TrEMBL record:
Pathway: Carbohydrate degradation; glycolysis; D-glyceraldehyde 3-phosphate and glycerone phosphate from D-glucose: step 4/4. It is an enzyme of class 4 (lyase). Its EC number is 4.1.2.13. One of its GO terms (biological process) is glycolytic process. CDD domains: FBP_aldolase_I_a. Keywords: Glycolysis, Lyase. It catalyses: beta-D-fructose 1,6-bisphosphate = D-glyceraldehyde 3-phosphate + dihydroxyacetone phosphate. This is fructose-bisphosphate aldolase. Gene3D superfamilies: Aldolase class I. It comes from Chrysophaeum taylorii. GO terms for molecular function: fructose-bisphosphate aldolase activity. Pfam families: Glycolytic. Belongs to the class I fructose-bisphosphate aldolase family.
Amino acid sequence: MSLSQYEPELRATAAAMVADGKGLLACDESTGTCGKRLESIGLENNEENRMTWRNLLFTTEGLELYVSGAILFEETLFQSGPDGVAFVDKLNAKGIIPGIKVDTGLKPLVGTNGENWCTGLDTLFERCTKYYERGARFAKWRTALKIDEGCPSNLALDVAATDLARYARICQECGLVPIIEPEVLIDGDHDVRTTAKVQERVLSTVYNKCEENGVVLEGTILKPAMTVPGVDCKDKSDPTEIARLTVRTLERGLPAAVPGVTFLSGGISEEDSSIYLNEINKLDRIGPWKLTFSFSRALQSSCLKTWNGQADNYEQAQAQLKARAQANSEASKGEYTPGSQPSIEESLFVKNYVY
């Protein structure tokens, strides 16, 4: 099939991903990153434990009320639960769309001040074909840009934007909705207005490249960071300012044809992520997009700690996941009451975070 043949499906899938009151569960951490989380609760990093953890997530009763799709790591896409049922089938049975992380990680971009580029384009078409056959219907490619002296450089931004656009077009040729994720990291001491300025530049560059590559914008989703100050900034912004600048940034750089934005949490705590998303959705705006969530740590953190690797805690951990999913569902409609859902509150920031 060609892109034109897939286009109706791409549009329908993208719309379903940002259905009212729903967002994405990002559980696409690499084997190493997932292992670090398991080791934090005393579990060995092996396939059985990774399977058990992800089975806990996917079998949470009622999760489908708040979650439209789940981003998987390749191992998980081809994995089955302890009952022998494939995870893709478990998700589809709930009406949760399976997705797949397709980038192969960041590497140093030679000639820059410690900046990176994202790898994986050379094998992407073949892998996407395989992933579609397995049941994936959308994909994610994360590149990361930092704010520092002279950063992001023109070179790093051009490489990131070009590769995101090439990735998006290749995915669409294979029937997968591309999530476009040009993450601007929160590392640093820059203020929130600096973040906004950089994000505007990033968005305009990325979507110019998407236009050059013939990407069908109606069959894509944007996954940015919210517009927050650097984690070491002394001038902390309040949620209303963060919301205002986040919406302004989108209205200045995101085409109206994109159906929705699924924000990443990027090291922001569970509760703060929900509060910021709620404030964003309380604002009047010109932009027509759905503004919702695609959280990993901000959905999984309290759930993982509640489970603690103990079978007796399974249901309590699932209740914790469902509570945070409900909080973010409400926030995606501007209806969340801060503190109304439980959270083990802490900073989830990890310097130079990788998946």
